[in-house]
Amino acid sequence: MQTYRLNQYRVMWVMVFFDLPTDTKKDRRNAALFRKRLLKDGFRMFQFSIYLRHCPSRENAALHIKRVKKSLPPDGYVGIMIITDKQFGNMELFYGKKEKELPETPQQLSLF
Length: 112
Hints:
This protein is of the alpha+beta class. The chain has helices at 25-40, 58-70, 85-89; strands at 12-19, 44-47, 50-55, 77-84, 93-95, 98-100. The longest helix has 16 residues, at 25-40. It is globular. 14% of the residues are buried. The model has no long low-confidence stretch (mean pLDDT 87).
């Protein structure tokens, strides 16, 4: 069995961003259902239509991307992007002109 050390280049963040129609009651229901499915799968809201999920590996990220694709709404735009933990850590966030801290990285459980 091959083991991989968790590092900033192996650990991934999956980012899902979307622009969904909300013109009709059915559209609003589809948009709400999509967001609920993201939350159920462990994604956290980063901005209103941007959700993030921390994944310990590229393979785990691929699993969650597959789940997102299965729950895509019938209309609207959805983007999915994977970035490394290192890239995520280089992001600068601001609220107005004040710098804001990045979301907390979930704790990793290590079994030896």
